[in-house]
Write a structure and sequence with these properties.
alpha/beta; Aspartate Aminotransferase, domain 1; Aspartate Aminotransferase, domain 2; 2 domains; four-stranded antiparallel β-sheet; 43% helix; binds pyridoxal-5'-phosphate
Length: 381
């Protein structure tokens, strides 16, 4: 590489910018679904930073890791399908776009209608916009979708795809996947489950009897998406899209004759192999036990946060289902409260459908962060 005398200056400026960037470790980032990656994930990422996972001929080990990861995750979510039943993505948005593209290519009928509860993530609106589909949203009043109402909508709108969520963005709701799967099977509709946020929490909380619903490949489920860059402690971008059947992957692979491998699968061309190395090593070496402990820690801390918020005057607090707590003040509009918290250096997100603010207990959040936050909130109120 060419020597460049400006590197030292570039580093100086970069460090200046880094020091102005909020860090997760001080507990000020309480609303975003991001976290600081695990050191094993960072090291794995850096080792394979030069790799392109769309080229499993040159970067063979990355191809092997991707296959093993997909196979292991499919088993974890109760799918017997082989190593080929899925692919890595840049995150929940790309997974939703790809799932819908797959649905379109395998089940589409004339009207291109997609059905979803109104609690779905905005990336589904985006996916429908890109793919020219009509998205019909079922009003839910921020509750899991009612399967009998969903069936009425199915009869009326004849969708080719249904999308439900395991861990909704604003409130952490889990739609009834098993029952919706039965409907999808009965009416021959593609069912995608968006578990971008909840996928690495729900199975563990369910196992411990803390939830009534699980996320699995129940009959009728065609695909499930999970994000490792949310609760899997890997660097951004790290998403996974799993399919119930190998035939679905084939619908989103395109010939790329000029390459050694000969085809590109998914939305991107060049894809980050480093993300695969990070997800693979976390799943393989820290694994299920680690994620289980983490899910329980986040859940317990969300219960603690809920109790602490309930102690404050004039707050309406929604009981957490997953480690997400929404609250609002009875007199102060949530946008104003958000602004006041921002001025104190706290980054919360909004839950507009509940006119409240959202705290997400991500892996980096500790009890001492919550205690300090409650103190600040008390002062503001
Ligand atoms: C349920 C759900 N799906 C999809 C996404 C989009 O994920 P990403 O930001 O990784 O594209 C999010 C993001 O918060 C989400 O909560």
């Amino acid at each position: 590489m060419l020597e460049n005398p400006n590197i030292a200056e570039a580093l100086r400026i970069l460090i200046e910018k880094y020091l102005k960037t909020p860090r997760h470790s001080n507990g000020s980032i309480l609303g975003s679904m991001t976290t600081y990656p695990h050191r094993l994930a960072i090291y794995s990422y850096l080792l394979f930073i030069h790799t392109n996972s769309s080229d499993p001929v040159i970067f063979k080990e990355i191809g092997v890791m991707e296959g093993e990861l997909i196979r292991d995750l499919n088993r974890f979510y109760g799918n017997k399908c082989s190593m080929q039943c899925g692919l890595t993505t840049s995150g929940g948005t790309e997974s939703n776009i790809l799932a819908l593209l797959t649905a379109l290519k395998s089940k589409s009928s004339g009207d291109r209608v997609v059905l979803a509860p109104d609690t779905i993530h905005v990336s589904v609106d985006k996916a429908c916009d890109i793919l020219g589909c009509r998205l019909v949203k079922i009003p839910t009043q921020n509750l899991p979708v009612d399967p009998s109402i969903l069936e009425d909508y199915v009869k009326k709108y004849k969708p080719f795809a249904i999308i439900v969520t395991a861990g909704t963005t604003e409130r952490g709701l889990i739609d009834p996947i098993k029952e919706v799967g039965e409907l999808a099977e009965q009416y021959n509709i593609y069912l995608h489950v968006d578990a971008a946020y909840g996928g690495l929490i729900i199975p563990f909380l369910y196992k411990h009897g803390l939830l009534n619903d699980d996320v699995r490949f129940y009959t009728g489920v065609s695909s499930i998406s999970i994000d490792f860059h949310k609760n899997g402690l890997t660097p951004i971008p790290s998403g996974i899209l799993l399919f119930s059947d190998e035939k679905y992957v084939d619908t989103i692979c395109y010939p790329a004759k000029y390459t050694l491998h000969g085809e590109y699968c998914g939305l991107l061309g060049t894809r980050p192999g480093a993300s695969i190395a990070a997800m693979w090593s976390m799943w393989r070496f820290l694994g299920i036990d680690y994620y289980e402990k983490l899910a329980l820690k986040m859940f317990n801390l969300s219960r603690y946060t809920y109790r602490r918020l309930l102690e404050l005057n004039d707050l309406l607090v929604y009981e957490p289902i997953l480690p997400i707590i929404v609250f609002r003040h009875r007199k102060i509009p949530y946008n104003i409260l958000l602004e006041k918290l921002l001025n104190k250096g706290y980054y919360l997100y909004k839950a507009p459908s509940l006119r409240g603010l959202r705290i997400v207990i991500m892996p980096h959040v500790e009890k001492r962060h919550i205690d300090k936050f409650i103190q600040t909130l008390e002062t503001i109120l």
